[in-house]
Specification:
The complex is a heterodimer of chains A (422) and B (481). Helices cover 19% and strands 39% of the residues of chain A. Chain A has 422 residues and is of the alpha/beta class. Chain A starts with 21 loop residues before the first helix and ends with a helix. Helix content of chain B is 25%, strand content 34%. Chain B is built from twelve helices and 24 strands. Chain B has helices at residues 2-12, 35-44, 49-63, 103-111, 116-121, 141-146, 154-160, 162-168, 179-187, 428-436, 441-457, 462-476, and strands spanning 26-28, 87-89, 125-131, 134-138, 150-153, 192-196, 205-211, 222-227, 232-240, 247-250, 253-258, 263-270, 282-293, 299-306, 311-314, 317-320, 326-335, 340-343, 346-349, 355-365, 369-378, 386-396, 401-410, 416-424. Chain B has a ten-stranded mixed sheet with strand order 4-3-7-9-12-14-17-20-22-24, covered by helices on one side. A six-stranded parallel barrel of chain B has the order 13-15-18-21-19-16. In chain B, a hairpin with a 2-residue loop joins strand 3 (125-131) and strand 4. In chain B, helix 2 (35-44) runs antiparallel to helix 3 (49-63), helix 7 packs across helix 8 (162-168) and helix 10 (428-436) crosses helix 11. In chain B, 55% of the residues are buried. The chains are: A alpha/beta (422), B alpha/beta (481). Chain A binds chain B through residues 43, 321, 324, 334, 336-339, 341-366, and chain B through 70, 380, 393, 395-425.
Chain lengths: 422, 481
């Protein structure tokens, strides 16, 4: 690994300051300095030249300040029919006055919870951007769901981003759920900025025994966002974690999603859809680490790529020696719609246990000509038929969203895109 | 269970069959690698100036390169300066035909089960036998030359067909390709050369047998196969080595050129010494194999059965340049004890309507690590490219590992690429089913493993298929409980 920070200008990001967590920050800084900014020589960032992009597009590497939004703004950006609670952030700073009080759930600034073991789940040594965030994160949010609490309505993390002249947004989220707790989060970001900015977010989720956590994420911030996203969770005994990531735009988006299965009889699910046009570039790296026996993981990522967009998928499944009786499934399907779209996919299985059932499948192709013909034969115009088939393709991921209002919202976005653009 | 363990014990403790070595007088290069060594080898082989220049250029390139670290294998650093780069059995005169070949050398091949004398009489396979660094005998030369086919040792080809060698050498695997290919280009000692003229269908299987005999030597052979338009050839390669405590390096290069409508089928049964049960010794097999489908409608098919070597690092690849060309890769890689294999293929689709098929079957037992690493790349102008990849892994025992690293890079929307991989062990229900029908567990395992590998074994020419099946049985029967 490189011991140099190759892109020195980018190193300015290290100069921003945050409050508290001296030791964690020092560790983050050390981990970052030993890794440096990734280049295309790095296996993990081979197809995603994020450092280069940052150097080209960002002028100001200082931390973005919080700004004011009104209750009206919040209201306007809720999904139709959404009934859950909302936590509002501006440039990654928590806005308690605009956020709902959620009964029975503790919500605090990370700086008020100085004993939170940040970096214990999303380890800084794994990824340079995760390390960078740990070194300089501005502040973050601490959400704790108590034991046996079943939160029926989803909690929306609504982020407003408006960076002046570039700037960097580096928030951190710590979620913990007690034993037998059940909770759903939706992460949605509204971009108010007209210049390119960099968002480097880390979400750590600590699940309890037999807890059920769902984490949905919608990425549709438009053209001028460069984003690095690290989400990592520990799944304990009988626990279940489900992630759905819908990426619809972004100049360059990198998602690292890691599931550490450390308790048996547990389940990890990862679903993703990347529906891209123009020059969007979305890179999904997922990692499931089975360390204990009798656990299951499912993964389905689908991509539709138009124009000059690029989709990168890398799915790793590790099955350690002790993880006998593991079932791990992974699937990645891509449809390319244009001459200039590119897909790079690398499903990776690493298995040290013998009594397991693991498989991965990966396809890249076009729409089924016969299905298209079938629809046309029944009087559906070709364009419409295409849209229908593509929507059916994408629908397999969307149906894993449980919350109706959010699913409807995503479905509309997807249908709009498929109907009008393609 | 205990019975199975017993069988496993018996089989895994079985000595490496080809572990003997013969003491013959050999002509060896001094230890170490410098420009002088290369000049020495070149002079020894009475090579023309252009080839020496080519070697020296490769050496310079190699010096600037560093050892690749990305493969999923671990081994102590190889001290390339402590190796001997050339070892040749001493021959008074170059034999003109088999009768003149030293009987001791023929005996070596007889012990390997390749009776060169018999070959002479029986119609069948033409063999080029390479011992350590040089080719010792080539059979059936006469028959082949009538058809215009050139099949001889590399050094002979340099002397007799310099224009062909000059044209194709390094055209598929350039010297700058990778660390070991550059090293090979600098120090390669001998190998086979095969040229099939336009429109000729080679009437017999061509075969090379490689054998490392001397201690402390690296073997660096180079194979070049040129199939002109509308020709066909099936080529076999086999390898063995004596059992020694130190690791030996084998860094070969194979280049295949296929013209329009030509078809080349390349089969390997690799059975280098895998090291002892404790993981001592064994061959480091770092090989670069690549073929180019240069013309339209050409086809290259790689089939490999990898059972030997302590560390294998090998990716037979196809560059599908011609329109409608086809690349195939069939592989069975078996690792046992402390063996490590990182093997797979690259299919690079450049031409229109190109097709490729990858079937890789990994079997790991003992404490071995078996990796599949492959790439399917569809270039922008490769309209209607089609690929199907399947890589299955079978795990036997809970101390081994199976890994897959497939890279799929698509730049054309009309491409259809499918990849699937599974990992499993032999199902208890499958064994139970066989047991129920009176098939003993060990036979059932053999049956299932053979069935598992059948898709690949079927691709091998008959003579090799038998050997490969025996090898599989030897390494694996009964290793599942």
């Amino acid at each position: 690994m490189s011991t140099l920070i190759k892109h020195e200008i980018l190193g300015e990001m290290l100069n921003s300051t945050g409050k508290g967590f001296e030791q964690a920050r020092a560790e983050g800084k050390e981990a970052f300095e030993s890794q440096g900014f990734p280049t295309n020589k790095s296996e993990e960032y081979k197809f995603t030249a994020i450092s280069k992009k940052l150097e080209q597009s960002i002028q100001n590497f200082g931390a973005a300040e919080s700004f004011e939004v009104t209750a009206e703004d919040v209201k306007n950006n809720l999904f139709e029919g959404f009934t859950g609670d909302v936590l509002v952030f501006t440039n990654g700073h928590f806005q308690s006055s605009l956020s709902s009080e959620i009964a029975g759930i503790e919500v605090a600034l990370l700086s008020e919870k100085s004993d939170t073991p940040v970096g214990s789940i999303a380890k800084p040594a794994k990824d340079p951007f995760c390390a960078l965030n740990q070194a300089v994160f501005t502040d973050g949010i601490f959400i704790s769901v108590p034991k046996k609490a079943v939160v029926e309505k989803p909690i929306l993390l609504l982020n407003f981003n408006k960076a002046v002249n570039g700037q960097v947004i580096q928030p951190r989220v710590w979620i913990e759920a007690g034993d037998f707790a059940e909770v759903t989060f939706i992460n949605h970001t509204v971009n108010l900025s007209d210049v390119t900015y960099f968002s480097n977010k880390v979400v750590e989720v600590k699940g309890g025994v037999n807890s059920q956590i769902r984490f949905y994420k919608l990425q549709n911030e438009g053209k001028n966002v460069i984003e690095a996203n690290n989400t990592e969770t520990d799944i304990h005994k009988d626990g279940r974690f489900t992630s759905v990531t819908i990426s619809l735009s972004g100049e360059l988006v990198r998602n690292n999603l890691s599931l550490n299965i450390i308790g048996s009889n547990s389940e990890g699910n990862m679903y993703g859809l990347y529906l891209l046009n123009s020059k969007s570039h979305v890179d999904n790296h997922t990692n499931v680490d089975h360390t204990v026996p009798h656990a299951e993981s499912n993964e389905l990522y689908k991509g539709i790529l138009a124009d000059q967009s690029r989709g990168v998928f890398n799915g790793k499944i590790f099955v350690r020696q002790d993880a006998q009786k593991t079932n791990a499934f992974q699937q990645n399907n891509n449809i390319l719609l244009s001459e200039d779209a590119v897909v790079n996919t690398k499903p990776q299985l690493e298995i040290w246990a013998d009594d397991v059932k693991c498989s991965h499948g990966c396809t890249t192709g076009q729409m089924d000509e016969e299905a298209l013909f079938y629809l046309q034969a029944r009087g559906i115009a070709k364009d419409q038929a295409k849209g229908l088939l593509l929507y059916a393709f994408a629908g397999e991921v969307l149906e894993h969203i449980r919350d109706e209002s959010f699913r409807e919202y995503c479905t509309n976005l997807v249908q709009d895109r498929l109907g009008s653009k393609f | 269970m205990s019975k199975d363990n017993q069988i496993l014990e018996e089989l895994t403790s079985k000595e490496y069959e080809h572990g003997w070595s013969v003491n013959y007088e050999a002509d060896e290069a001094p230890v170490g690698l410098t420009e002088e060594t290369i000049r020495w080898i070149s002079a020894k082989k009475e090579e023309p100036q252009w080839l020496l220049d080519w070697r020296l250029k490769a050496f310079k390139t190699w010096q600037a390169m560093s050892e690749p670290k990305w493969a999923n294998v671990h081994y102590p650093k190889i001290d390339l300066q402590s190796l001997k780069y050339y070892s040749a059995p001493k021959l008074a005169n170059k034999p003109k035909n088999l009768d003149e070949v030293d009987p001791e050398l023929l005996d070596i091949y007889k012990r390997l089960g390749i009776n060169l004398n018999e070959q002479k009489r029986l119609q069948g396979i033409a063999v080029d036998a390479v011992l350590d660094s040089v080719s010792v005998a080539t059979t059936f030369k006469g028959t082949l030359s009538k058809l215009g086919i050139v099949f001889c040792s590399f050094s002979e080809a340099v002397k007799e067909h310099p224009e062909l060698v000059k044209k194709y050498l390094g055209s598929v695997v350039p010297m700058t390709d990778n660390y070991y290919a550059a090293l090979n280009a600098a120090v390669f000692s001998d190998g086979s050369f095969c040229y099939i003229p336009k429109g000729v269908r080679c009437p017999m299987e061509l075969s090379t047998y490689f054998r490392i005999n001397a201690a402390n030597t690296g073997q660096f052979e180079r194979t070049l196969i040129v199939a002109e338009d509308e020709s066909y050839v099936s080529y076999l390669e086999g390898c063995t080595a004596p059992q020694r405590d130190e690791n030996q390096l084998h860094a070969a290069v194979v280049e295949i050129y296929a013209g329009a409508h030509a078809e080349v089928k390349y089969s390997t049964v690799q059975n280098w010494f895998p090291g002892s049960k404790e993981g001592v010794g064994g061959i480091y097999n770092f090989v670069t194999k690549r073929g180019i489908c240069a013309g339209d409608f050409s086809k290259i098919s790689w089939t490999q059965v990898e059972t030997g070597s302590a560390v294998t690092w090998k990716y037979p690849s196809c560059i599908l340049k011609g329109d409608n060309s086809i690349g195939e890769f069939y592989s069975v890689a078996v690792t046992n004890n402390y063996q490590q294999a990182d093997t797979g293929t690259k299919m690079i689709h450049i031409g229109k309507n190109t097709k490729s098929r990858i079937v890789s079957k990994g079997i790991s037992a003992g404490k071995s690590q078996n990796s599949y690493r492959g790439q399917v790349q569809v270039m922008k102008r490769a309209t209607n490219a089609r690929n199907f990849s399947q890589c299955d892994s079978l795990l036997m025992g809970d101390r081994c590992g199976a890994h897959t690293f497939p890279y799929i890079d698509i730049n054309n929307p009309t491409a259809k690429v499918e990849h699937e991989a599974t990992t499993s062990k032999i199902g208890e229900d499958q064994l139970f089913y066989c047991n129920q029908r009176g098939i003993a567990t060990e036979d059932a395992v053999a049956l299932i493993v053979n069935g598992y590998a059948k898709e690949v074994l079927n691709q091998l020419p008959m003579e090799f298929a038998v050997e490969a099946q025996k090898l599989l049985a030897l390494t694996l029967e009964g290793s599942v409980g």
